[in-house]
């Protein structure tokens, strides 16, 4: 019965392609395991296959109509203007007519776009840039902030459900991968982490981290069109795959960038997302989700390889990415030091990509610190901001990531507190002393205040107070300090070389 419906649909799709071509439109046809997509000029039509699978049910026309409408509605937030509605297809399978009634089939109607717009293609051709990463980070953080939370009492996001889903995924992957030792190792790691993180999963669920997300944010579902970043094709057929932790949603993109050889862009994306939304506590579960996403995509790749698509190599890269995420815990505390306008934050941003670190910036966190006014730089306010920075830094290091504490740290007590934090977590620490001439610092402060885009509120008056009241680094601190002149070309490259021995200690 199902085969007969699919044959009728395939005939309809072929006839529709021929009809559009006869009308003079260039038509491209793409097929996945669950749909056909026809691209004709400025329009694209996605027809869902009449399938009933373990994870979806498109078997009847009413169901396909329902899920087409769901797809259009759910993708509006992350892809505004890309989805145009649900198109009715009348006539007969041999002579279909778009827009005719009564409908014998339906399709998701979209604005077409070139394949070169897809991030998967942009990465492959070395075209994906940092501005797109930053734009996507802001888009996703705002989307997550406004997304609906899982209803109270819902089982969505329960630790037991997360563990069961992970166990099932490994069980399905093992035979596809030939019962590989690598998958077995990852399965053991996943099982242990699911048990260790059970309390954290529950805390995240109670705190509202389980939200109506996208659910499938790999690079082939993200595009840059007319200089605007969008994400499309979110999960519409299974609530359990879409109502997930917001860090699980982000993990898809991070994982996919890494397996495509773009670890620097992944680090930038993570840092920009966290800076925008402030969910540093989510780092505790992020590594688990990165591994889980890699395992899911490896399973999909191997299933497609069975359909004679060349995906086995991709599955190997995904498993390597999962194993790297599972075994990489390299915490460190990097203490930025310098005056306002010295270039600390710019240097810190470069270190994020080089080290895969998380930057926590005082200028951003000042606005999130209770009781601190934006323009207030008195001692009590500064103490509160620095206390918040150290609290967040502790969460980052505890999750196994290097943290860059991006603040002036002009008082000895502030630096000592960071050193104690590192010692308490058993990780190395280093001070990065960023220097620039007073004239350059004043010019930079004036430029960023005129631009109005930088979160820093420091002005020349604040700089004057800093220059007059800073406590210099003493001998023990200098032994763990690397100096960088932000006015020199290639400064970060030399800085990294000087940092290696201190971070390895």
From TrEMBL:
Domain of life assignment: Bacteria
Residue ranges of every copy of the Aminoglycoside phosphotransferase domain listed in the record: 108-284
Protein known as: AAA family ATPase
Organism lineage: Bacteria, Pseudomonadati, Pseudomonadota, Betaproteobacteria, Burkholderiales
